[in-house]
Amino acid sequence: MSANYTIPAYILCGGKSSRMKRDKALVLLQEEPFIKHVVNALNKTTTAICLVSENRNYEQFGLPLVADIYKDKGPLGGIHAALNHTQEERVLILSCDIPLINSQTLTRLVDAALSNPDANIHFATANENWHPLIGVYAKAILPDLKLALQQNNLKLIDFIKTQTYKEIAIADTRSLTNVNTPEALVEIQKII
Fold it and tell me: Which residue ranges does the record assign to the MobA-like NTP transferase domain (predicted)?
């Protein structure tokens, strides 16, 4: 598949990585940092990729860095920065700690979002578990998002529930695997 979507992708890289005890984006899996695995999947899906971070270590990937406007506000702050940065109506948002993500999952998600524009948020689900950091977010949520950040209402799931959203079931649950701990990394290394 070629990169045929104009929807830009933003990878959120600003977490504290407290459970992993090191920068998750730079953790190696099969000799490549997590972030490189995510970028490789995105390269088959879109031509516009940005990293939401101020960390200069990420300049090595040759992608634009976008800084949070609202600092230390977690994923909501990163989504806000992405939506504020883009000129497009929708953005694809991914966390940096999903090294098994693949272009098929991303294509399913983007296709669903583009074919159902009535919902402002589309995100991956598997076995009734929400994966909101594998999602497509519409610029239309920006005013509500800004208000939530100003009021310090920072729970992403709570924010999503205030919006029009659509859950996109993903059959390949492995591609949604979030690696947050050293133990999870060991487990993932066993299955690939």
Answer: 9-154
